[in-house]
Design brief:
- This protein has helices spanning 3-10, 26-32, 40-52, 81-86, 88-94, 96-103, 199-202, 307-312, 321-333, and strands at 14-16, 21-25, 56-61, 70-74, 107-113, 119-128, 131-134, 144-148, 159-163, 171-174, 222-227, 239-251, 263-264, 269-273, 285-288, 293-298, 316-320, 338-341, 343-346, 350-353.
- It has 354 residues and is an alpha+beta fold.
- The chain is 20% helix and 30% strand.
- The chain folds into three domains: 3-79, Arc Repressor Mutant, subunit A; 102-182 and 330-353, Thrombin, subunit H (Beta Barrel); 214-321, Beta Barrel (Thrombin, subunit H).
- It is elongated, with a radius of gyration of 22 Å.
- The longest helix is centred in the N-terminal third of the chain and has 13 residues, at 40-52.
- The protein is built from nine helices and 20 strands.
Length: 354
């Protein structure tokens, strides 16, 4: 049960007492939702947290009860019913531990055999029931690679797509249809013209069911990375790193998160975060507080100015989610911007690029 969703949905309206329109009280919420109410302290904690986040407006109190006499309206300026159904506001109340718990099984490890016969590891995440997203360099230029699910089982790969832009460190993998059928999906509905799209709508494929929604990362947003950095003594262990966006890095012609002034070659915008990411984090998702993927961790290009300094300072580089959406749309439409690469099986459960 998503208590934040139920509260915001309930207080999104009011009632007419015969003389005026009034906000509902917590007592009215409890009376209507007796089967889902799990305790007065939990309910009041959720209400206080939602009020702090600007999602609930406290409209006063009636009666003598210390809790149930409080009245609320949902703040329609910040409330998004689609995100509420997705569970964003429950994640917001419960913090990043809830984000990790909900999405941990969507984060997959990639076991890589390098050209020098040394093994390394990368990360990826499930987008929908047959689609995985990762970084291009986790697959390209290696002897072989193996995609592993959360239990360590090998996942069959049918197709792989890159962007026609070789500088875009993104890859989309396709597995057998409905391979991840056990993971719940959501779809953003189209909006009426008089309402228009939200920023979340703009970076997602409207109407397409997906395990995760994409979001837009902004400077100073709190974020969490999920991935499989190499740790001595462990084969593959999922690590969650809390961070914030520190900067927006732009490659060439576009003129915290920490600042928005750096310009580099190219045309690809990056986000800079202060998480101490390692090589195995590459390809892993970066979530915001509402459980939206705002991008993936990618490799620092050798063409960046002072890439070793960025790495030394412990910063990580993120490709924003809008580039992932664009590649997915290109694949869906058979657009030449998405390049299908040849994949060869190696042994029973590994693959390599032809």
């Amino acid at each position: 049960m998503q208590l934040a969703h139920e509260l915001l949905s309930f207080f999104n309206d009011g009632y007419n007492d015969g003389s005026s329109f009034r906000p509902f009280s917590l007592m009215q919420f409890v009376e209507k939702n007796k089967e889902i109410v799990s305790g007065v302290y939990k309910i009041t904690h959720y209400c206080k947290k939602l009020e702090q986040e600007g999602l609930l407006d406290h409209m006063g109190r009636t009666g003598d009860h210390p809790f149930f006499g409080h009245h609320y309206y949902t703040n329609k300026r910040f409330y998004n019913p689609d995100l509420s159904i997705y569970g964003s506001y429950d994640l917001l109340v419960n913090g990043f531990s809830a984000v990790r718990e909900r999405f941990k099984e969507t984060c997959l490890a990639i076991s890589v055999l390098q050209q020098d016969d040394e093994y390394s590891i990368g990360s990826s995440f499930v987008y929908n029931h047959d689609t995985i997203i990762t970084a291009r360099h986790c697959l390209e230029g290696h002897k072989s690679f193996k995609l592993l699910d959360f239990s360590g089982n090998s996942i069959p790969i049918e197709d792989i797509y890159f962007s026609i832009d070789t500088q875009l460190d993104l890859a989309v993998l396709k597995t057998s249809k409905n391979y991840f059928h056990s993971l719940p999906v959501h779809a953003l509905p189209p909006k009426p013209e008089h309402i228009g799209n939200t920023p979340t709508d703009d970076v997602n494929i409207i109407g397409a069911p997906s395990v995760v929604y994409f979001g837009v990362g902004k400077v100073l947003d709190d974020i969490i990375t999920l991935g499989y950095p190499p740790i001595a003594g462990f084969e593959s262990i999922l690590i969650a790193d809390k961070s914030s966006i520190n900067s927006v890095l732009l490659r060439s012609s576009i003129g915290q998160v920490l600042s928005e002034e750096k310009k580099y070659y190219g045309d690809i915008e990056y986000l800079l975060m202060n998480a101490k990411v390692k090589g195995g984090n590459s390809g892993g998702p970066v979530f915001d507080r509402k459980g939206r993927v705002i991008g993936i961790v990618v490799e620092i290009s050798a063409d960046f100015k002072n890439p070793e300094l960025i790495d030394k300072l412990g910063y990580g580089i993120i490709i924003p989610s809008r580039y992932i959406k664009d590649l997915l749309v290109a694949i869906q439409n058979g657009d030449e911007l998405a390049v299908k690469v040849k994949v060869q099986p190696v042994g029973e459960d590994s693959y390599k690029l032809a």
